[in-house]
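Query protein
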Amino acid sequence: MKLVIHTQYRENYAAHNEDFVPGVSENYWKMKGGSTYVVPRFKDFAIAKEVVAFLSDRIGYSNPASEEYIVDWEIRDNSDKVCESWETVTQIFIVGEKVTALQITDNRPDADQYGGYMRSEILEMTEAWTMLPDSDRSEYSCSYLMRDGDICESQSSLRNWLEVYDATASRLKNLSSSMKPLQDNYMLISK
């Protein structure tokens, strides 16, 4: 079984106005979606409410410009689908007081050919962090699985990989266009 937590995220559009004063100006909240969190292999059914309450301070936050809060939770079978294919679930692992989040964003095209928001050379982005009270984070890490099987362990290694890839692709394109006259001549001679 797994504990599934759904949130609502909303933005205060009024907070972007130059004359906005929190607590004085009128708010203009707009719903913007939410997130799905899963605690896999959940067995503590008797204290599920307490676990959700414990996690609410690590998941939710509120400030004058935006907020996220828990709207629902449920216990589901491990094999149950809990969100749409284009959504990214955040897995939560609790060991004592330490709460670790793991999020794997799949950038591959789905059945509808929707391929995510990252460059197509990136197949997956894996993020991990320690969840702290007040929705704070520590020990953040991020890695990228590339379509050639390489793994970039940081933003800088991803940037380097993409620079090499782009330079190589550019050289191959130039080489291909310089070979075109030779290919055309070969075609004339072989006829």
About this structure: The mean pLDDT is 88. The chain has two domains: 2-143, 154-191. The first helix runs from residue 48 to 59. The beta strands are 2-12, 29-31, 36-39, 61-62, 66-76, 90-95, 98-106, 122-132, 136-146, 151-152.
